[in-house]
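ping. complex inputs:
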Amino acid sequence: MKSKGDAQYLEKQPQWLMEIVPNTTVKREYGIHRSSQKIIDYLHACLKKYMEESIVKETDENGSVIREVFGVNKILDPVLLEEIIQYNDNGNFDRIIAAELAIAQALKMDPIFGRIGGSGDDRVKSLYSGKRNNKLFSESSSLFYNKQKQKLFT
Amino acid sequence: MINLKNIDYKDWYINQKRIPDKSSEEHREFFNHHKELCLNGAMMDGVYINPFLYWHLNFWNTEVDIIDERGRISQKYANPYLRDNEWVITNEIDRAQNERKGLVILGIRRLAKSVLESSYIAWGATFDENSQNVIAGLNSPDIKLITDKIDKGLNFIPEAWRWQRIEDNWKNQVTLGIKTKSGERIPYSSILIRNLDEGNNEEAIAGTKPRKLIIDEIGKGSFLRGLQAAIPGFTTPFGWGCSPILTGTGGDMKRFMDAKSLMFDVDNFNFLTYNNSKDTSRIHGLFISNKYRMEAKEDSSLGAFLNVPLSSELHQVKMLVSNEEKANALTVSNLERLKKAGDRIAYLKEKMYYPQEVDDIFLNEDTNIFDIESAKRQKSRLLQQLRTGTPVILFQDEGKISHEFTDKLPISNFPLKNSDLKDAPVVIYEFPIENPPYGLYVAGVDPYRQGQSAYSSSLGSVYIYKRMHSLMDEKYQDMFVASYCARPDKKETWEEQARMLINITMLAPFVRMMIFLL
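pong. complex structure:
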C-alpha cells in the first residue's frame, strides 16, 4: 500500500509497540509487525477484552445481576465470529488479525482522545455549526432504496 | 442384485461349537459359506447384516474389557462386542461402498475407531485378491497403533483363511500370500503403510491403487493433498473403486483445517453426507457424539435396538446400546464439575473428547483463548435475525466515492471452500457519517501477498471500527461498521476496494488513522 502512494493513510509504527516489546530491533516506518509472540498475544488480548467487556448490566433490588450483555454482542460479522470459534495457531485467520489491529489502535487512542463527539465536544460542534439539522449520522436507508447509485455522503 | 442368504443367529461363526475337520469336504464348504457372508452379508429376520459387520464380529479379535472371576476389570483377546457404534459405523461403511463414495467419521474417544480400521484393512487383505489395502496416517505412532492390531489380528483369523507373510515390513508394506517349499513367493494381497508426515509428504499415497484406504487421525495435519494424490488410483470408469474411510477424534485436532474443510464440505468431496441433528440446513460427515460414550452403554439386544417384535430372533443378538439420557447427564455433570474446579484446559478436553455438537470436535485448548460459547451464540443470533450487513461495491464517480448494491455475496465459509468465490464485496453494517471527527474511525488491515498461490485460503481483510461517538447516541459505537475480506483475481481490485473503503471513513481533512500490518 505504501508503494501505491497510500502512506498518508497509514499509522506510523506505534510507540506503544515499544511498551510490549521494549527490546525489539524491528523498525518499520508504518504498521505493526507480528514477529514477536508478545505482540500477537497482546493483540489477542485486545480482542478478548473487547469480547468479554460487560456493556449492559441489569440488577434486581438485591443487587444480583439479572441480565448482562458482553462486547461479543457488538460483533456483527458471522464469519469473524466463526474465525474466533475456530482459532488456532496454524490456520489463516485474516479477519481476526485485521479486527484485532483496529481494536488495539482504538484502545490506544481512547485515553489520548477520549470520547469522540457528543454535544460536549467542541470539535464536533464546530463541524456541524451552521447546518440546518445537526444530525450526526446520515440516514443510510434513504441512500439504499431511492436511487440505484448513490454518493456515500448525503 | 445378489440374493442374500438368510441366516439365524445360531449360524454365526462365533456360535459354532464345532469346526469341521480340516481334511474334510465339509470344512471347505463350511468356510466357503462364511466367506460368502463376509463378502456379501446376509439377512436375519428381514434385517440386513452387512458383510463387514459379520466379518468384524465373527473373525476379528481385539482386547475386550471383561470382569474376571474375582470381579476385577480385566482384558482378554476376543471377538469385539456388538455396540450401536459398530452397527452405525459398519452400516455407513457399507453404504459408502455401495454408493461409491468416501466416508469421514469424526467423534468421541473410544468409539472403536482403530479396531474397526484394523479389521477393515485385514478384511480386504484376506479376501480381495491382488488388492492393495492402504493404511495412511499423519504420524508414525498413530499408524503403529493400527498396524500392531492388524499384525496381531491376522494371526487369529481361522487357519483356512490365514495367509503367509511373504513380505513383513510394517513400516512400508506387508504382502500376504504363499511361500512354496521351493522358495517361490506367490502374492495374494498387500497392506501398504503410508505416512503423510503431518501433511509434509503429500505424495505418500500417490502411485497406489487402493481397494481399501484408511486415513487415520485426520485432525493432526494436512491430508487433503495426500487424498487428492490417491484419488486417481481408485478412479474407474464406473466411479470410485474404493471408498476412502477417514477418521478423527475430538481432542486430537491440533491442525484441523483440512479435517474441518472435509467434514463440512462432504458433498463436494464425494463423501457421504449427514444432516445436522439440530440444524437440518447444515450437512457434514458422520459425527459420533457423546451419546456413544462407553460409560453410558447398557446391555440390550439388536432386536431391542431396532425395535422389532419380541418374537424376532434378533433379540438373541447381544448388544451394548447407548442410553442417551445417561450419556448427556454424565457429560454435563463432568463439564460442570470441571467448570467449578476452574480448570479450563480439563474442561475443554472433556468437551472435545465427548463432543455434544459437531463443532466441539474442533475446539483447541492450546491456542484458543476466546470465549467460544458466546461467539457461537452471537453467530447463531445474527444468522437467525439475518443481520449480516449490506454488501456493496465501491467505485469512483466524478472524483467522489460512490457505492452500489450488489448481488455478490460476502464469503460465508471459514475455512474457505474451494467452491467459494473469493471476489467478495465490501460489507457495510453502518454507513459512514459525513465529515467524521478526528479519530472516529480506525481501520485494521491485513493484506495478502501477491505472490501467494491462487489457491491459498489467505484473504486480504480490512475492518473499519467506529469509536465511541456520543454517550447518549443509539447508533453503533465501539463497533465494527464495515469489513472487506476478499481475494479477487487481481490484487489491484482488492487494493482499490480497500483504499476506497478506508477513504470513505477517513476522508475528513484532518482524519488519518489506520493501522497496517506489514
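The radius of gyration of chain A is 20 Å.
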